[in-house]
Design goal:
The chain is 37% helix and 29% strand. The chain is built from 3 helices and 4 strands, in the order E-H-E-E-H-H-E. A 4-stranded antiparallel β-sheet has the order 2-3-1-4.
Length: 92
Amino acid sequence: MEIVVMYTLAEGAERSRVMETYPRHKAFFEAFRADGGGLLALGPFLTADPAGSSMGIFCSREDAEKFLAGDPFVTEGLAVPRILEWEAVRFS
């Protein structure tokens, strides 16, 4: 099982502030991965979706919670995360 984090933009969050925060978010996720954090994939959706503006896939709930505790998008109130357990069926 993997853990998916769906991010929605916080009410009132301005796109300009999101873009201003992005370099800190990027530095954070790169350091998280370099330190062995179980982040498998992360990124925005390219089409508007009221259910989520971006998502991340993690190896465990613990990894997801640790990531969210330090992610500038979350700590600065720009994104509201939702943690979901995902039982993916993989095809080769």
